[in-house]
Amino acid sequence: TASVEPSPIVDLTMGFPALLRLPGPLQTRFRVATLLLVAPLVGAGVVGAVGAVVSARASSALSAQSDDSAQIESLQGQVQGVALDGMAFIATGQADELSAMRAAERAVESGLERVASLPTLSAGERTGLAGAELAWQGSSTVRNDVETLPPTLSSAIDIGSLADYFSYTISGVSSQL
Q1: Is the pTM here over 0.85, yes or no?
Q2: What's the whole-number average pLDDT of the chain?
Q3: Are 167 and 80 a contacting pair, CB within 8 Å?
Q4: Are the C-beta atoms of residues 102 and 147 closer than 8 Å to each other?
Q5: Is the CA virtual torsion 34, 37, 40, 46 positive or negative?
Q6: What sign has the CA pseudo-torsion 90, 92, 94, 96?
Q7: To the nearest whole percent, how much of the chain has pLDDT over 90?
Q8: Is there a contact between 79 and 177 (Cβ–Cβ < 8 Å)?
Q9: How many CA atoms lie less than 13 Å away from 18 in the CB half-sphere?
């Protein structure tokens, strides 16, 4: 009897477990190999797309938070502008300093409204803003005192005490922000 020697391909596939053996026809083998090569690429693409979506959402949240911080810092600058213009008016008594203080007060009031309308403020920021609004309302008396300042005060002590009280009151507004 003639003996048939197995081909090297058959020997190679016969040694693998059934799960690791490629199917019989060559065209099917190539299809399976292609799927095995493409599957990790598709998985990596899906993971990349999910990462891009998460990154975009995180970026937009950080951007909104940054915008809020910029608005609050701008408001702090406006409050400090009221303090500087008020102190300049107390020191000089000039009408242009008083006009600048009144313009800065209007800017603070609109800034408080603008910041209060931001939808992305955190609970802590809302609490601080509420405190700043109360402090701003409380400072109206001293701001009116400065605005109705007589051209000449009776003494330097009166000017110094008004300036100290004004500075203290306005810094209370700024510290709440």
Answers
A1: no
A2: 76
A3: no
A4: yes
A5: negative
A6: negative
A7: 1
A8: yes
A9: 0
